[in-house]
Amino acid sequence: MIRLLDLTIAILGMVLFFPFLLLFALLIVTDSWGPVFYLQKRVGRGGQDFTLYKFRTMRSDADKNGLLTIGANDSRITKFGLFLRRYKIDEVPQLINVFKGDMSLVGPRPEVRRYVDHYSEEQKKILLVRPGVTDMASIFYKDENELLNQASDPDSLYIKEILPHKISLNQFYIENPSLKNYFYIIYLTLRKVISGSGGKDTSREPTIR
Question: How far from the centroid of its chain's Cα atoms is residue 74's Cα?
């Protein structure tokens, strides 16, 4: 049932937003030189690599200076890219991944191989499910980049603290992938994006009831 919902929403989303996607594509190439899409290898279900699609929000070859984005003022981010990131519009092309079956709308966000290599045997269970466009960790860490910007060693903070916490936040949905939880996470995501609130909200950690 969830796969059918993924397909239906992905197809409807691509059709309904197609004119806007064309406009965003034009603004991206006008703002800075380079391709419209940013393609990156991520680790999916079963530990298999797949190509993840995003609208490009950084200058070309930005990965050469690190995989993590450090703060909204990261000099690699383009002016229009900052807008796309703020409202999570850069993630919309992942509807292609959902359509192809690489991802679901809801599920643990896929990581690059470098960070998956740090998973413990217990944490590797997250690779048994299809990764998603959004999850509980995405809601809790909406402005993760700002947290990394404050760290003396962003890479260490991500590997030792943020990454394990993300996996624990997603554990309940991984074990209980019901329609109720599916729509609840989508609802929380939309509410978070529309409200514009973000950061690490330690006063109210999102939970599935």
Answer: 18
DSSP 78: -
Query: What CA dihedral angle connects 147, 151, 155 and 157, to 10 degrees?
Result: -70
Among the listed residues 176, 50, 28, the one whose alpha carbon sits nearest the alpha carbon of residue 116: 50
This prediction has a pTM of 0.86
Distance CA 183, CA 191 (A): 12
Please write the tens of the pLDDT for every residue from 130-189: 999 999 999 998 878 778 878 889 889 999 999 999 999 998 888 888 999 999 999 999
- Token code pair at residue 130: 């299809």
* Spatial CB neighbours of 101, under 8 Å, sequence gap ≥ 6: 3, 130
Label residues 139-175 b or e (16+ Cβ within 10 Å = b): bbbbbbbbbbbeeeebeebbeeebbeebbebbeebee
Is residue 147 within 8 Å of 104, Cβ to Cβ? no
Go through the chain and tell me how many residues it has: 209
